[in-house]
Predict the structure.
Amino acid sequence: MKKYTLILGTTLIALFTLVLASSAKDAKPKPYPLKVCIVSGAKLGSMGKPVTIIHKGQDLKFCCKAGIKKFTKDPKTYLVNLVAQPAKRVVHTKDSLEVVKARLAKGTAVLLDVREPFEWNDGHLKAATLVPLSDLREAQGDTDFAKKLAKKLPHNKVIYLHCRSGGRVLAATPILRAMKFDVRPLKAGYSTLVKAGFEKAK
């Protein structure tokens, strides 16, 4: 009798352990599936117009705004096991400032200032064109905006970006690259460029 009781007790403990393990497994947060959230560069596996956001220099594409809300609440949960092709991290261009100057002088490149209008009004470079990052973010995915920008910026030239200290250019780069521009973000900010000999507008 004792033998059967011991076997029964051992079996119940084993079953209880399995139930607990199963519950713990189910309780773990599940990553967003590839059909809902993908990194730019991979194929979108769902219907509808994708929505894109910038997260730590990467261009993340969602099939709906609901997906963005869930992602922004807890990005780590969904990025850890994201079954998507990793995007190339946006980095500053390796082109030297001398190379940038030479290309601007030859007309083979243009310079874009992605700071805000109030910063532009306080001082800007003579060779620069203002396209604020806030405008780029707001008009992201807007076909009409892309057409207007295409008239303003050339697709057959290198586009160098600058801001105050080299941060905002990394956020602006994937937005402009999605519009098929050859974009190269500069690490040097406005003050550094002025010190390097880039002419200020009067």
